[in-house]
Amino acid sequence: MLSTVGKQLRNHPALIPLFVFIGGGATMSMMYLARLALRNPDVSWDRKNNPEPWNKLAPTDQYKFFTVNMDYKNLKKDRPDY
């Protein structure tokens, strides 16, 4: 299969940007999915030791990927401890 792709790219060099952008998009989407699976507080990988990881978040913890006009350092605690 790789030899076929290599032959096509040698014969049609205009396909190189297509392969680069498709490969880059696939890589970035896989990295984002991995970040969601590992960093999101809604995902619990260890239910025995930490069944509710969202309760252990401090108000200053940033778990969103991108926030506009939000400074997490100045937030106050607005919920009770359980």
What does this structure look like?
The protein has 82 residues and is mostly helical. The protein has one domain (2-74). Helix content is 41%, strand content 0%. The protein contains two helices and no strands. It has helices spanning 2-11, 16-39. The longest helix is centred in the middle third of the chain and has 24 residues, at 16-39. It is elongated. The mean pLDDT is 80. It holds the Pfam family B12D. Keywords: Electron transport, Membrane, Mitochondrion, Mitochondrion inner membrane, Respiratory chain, Transmembrane, Transmembrane helix, Transport. InterPro entries: B12D. The chain crosses the membrane at residues 15-38. This is Cytochrome c oxidase subunit NDUFA4.
- Biggest sheet overview: none
What is the CA-CA span between the terminal residues?
Answer: 56 Å
Class computed from helices, strands and strand pairing: mainly alpha
| Proportion of residues in helical segments | 40-55%
- Hey, roughly how much beta strand do the residues contain? under 5%
In N-to-C order, the SSE pattern is HH
Number of helices: 2
User: Gyration radius, to the nearest Å?
Assistant: 22 Å
- Contiguous low-pLDDT stretches (5 residues minimum) are none
Number of strands: 0
Q: Which whole number gives the mean pLDDT?
A: 80
The backbone outline, from C-alpha atoms, is elongated
The domain count comes to 1
